[in-house]
Amino acid sequence: MLYYFLYPLVKYHTVFNVFQYITFRTIYAAVTALALSFIIGPYIIERLKALNVGEVVRTDGPPNHFSKAGTPTMGGAIILLVVVLSVLLWGNLANPYVWVLTLVTVGMGFIGFLDDYSKVVKKKKGGMRASTKFVSQIAVALIAVVFLYHSGFDTVVTIPFLKEVKINLHGFYIPFAVLVIVGASNAVNLTDGLDGLAIGPMIISSATYMLLAYLVGHVKIASYLHVMFVPMAGELAVFAGAMVGASLGFLWFNTYPAQVFMGDVGSLSLGGALGTLAVITKQEALLLLVGGIFVVEALSVIFQVGSFKLTGKRMFAMAPIHHHYELKGWPEPKIIVRFWIISIILALIAISTLKIR
Questions:
Q1: Are 190 and 297 within 8 A, CB to CB?
Q2: DSSP string covering 91-151, please?
Q3: What is the per-residue pLDDT across 224-256, written as a single tens digit (0 to 9) for each?
Q4: From CA 253, how far away is CA 38, in angstroms rounded?
Q5: Which of 22, 63, 325, 332 is the least crowded, having the fewest Cβ atoms under 10 Å away?
């Protein structure tokens, strides 16, 4: 919005020229999101407390989680609100990718809200039916991907470390991209089980894709690095920057011991946004590395369920895997910080693939 109002004023003074630069708007989208989080965060947390929107703790979960019961949840609304506001302020709203990403983020957030509302307000055990939730996620992702496909979006998938390997999926790209978006959304949701555990790697992953969006959207840099050039994708750096700022702001309230939990409204929307960023920047496969923590958390659940059904035995003390380490006696802060460290290492390796090709 500011891009349209202030950049045209460059004819009166060159200072307004900065609004054309993606880097400038990305920085201030992050700063704006961070500032808004600090401003509206305490108000929303107090409103959640007043409405008695408290966390429902699983009776079969780790014993030390019982003390978390009643902590305000659905705090992801803070993230969702400030991301959208920051993008509206600093983004180029003529860019269709911005709207696709916004659609997925808000759509997944709405599904998460309905799930949270069902659990904490209506007191329905388990919340929304799993099948309804999953189909709704697929619907949101499918709308976005079909739009991209019919807009002439490239259906080629690239492989990290291998610059010459490009796989054109043609029509099969639609289910593939839907899988990436829905998978990322649910993986982040599964990771959100300890204070600050999910939001830390989300900050790191968003920052990584912020960089990737800028690089693949710049024709000269993309050519130099031998990565696929995606016209107009650079503008998504602004969106990713807003995600970084909003996530940092939320971490202020979510760090151990948490004042608020993000709930599904936050985890599903952030995960969906991350998956969509991976799709539009043509770095889908790299998401397995950048979001490695989320991938491991999701796989631990899949392996746990599969192992129990096939052999009657469990692979882990409890899944997702962060609960396994809790039951092994690791203090919660140790698990959280070590997972953050691993996430940073994975992000650095992912960035290195830009040169190791």
A1: yes
A2: S-TT-HHHHHHHHHHHHHHHHHHHHHHHHHTS--TTSS-HHHHHHHHHHHHHHHHHHHHHT
A3: 998 999 999 999 999 999 999 999 999 999 999
A4: 9
A5: 63
Residue 160, helix vs strand vs coil? coil
Answer whether residue 13 shows pLDDT above 80. Answer: no
Q: Which of 84, 115, 118, 93 is nearest to 270 (CA)?
A: 84
Compute the distance between CA of residue 132 and CA of residue 125 in angstroms, rounded to an integer.
15
Neighbouring residues of 136: CB distance < 8 A, sequence distance ≥ 6:
111
* Cα distance between the two ends of the chain: 39
| pTM of the predicted model as reported, rounded to 2 decimal places | 0.94
Q: How many CB atoms lie within 10 A of CB 194?
A: 25
Q: Mean pLDDT across the chain, nearest whole number?
A: 91
Which run of H or E residues covers position 165?
strand 162-168
CA angle centred on 254, ends 253 and 257, rounded to 5°: 100
* CA angle, 236 then 272 then 241, to 5°: 30
Q: What is the reported pLDDT for 105?
A: 98
User: Three-state SS for 1?
Assistant: coil
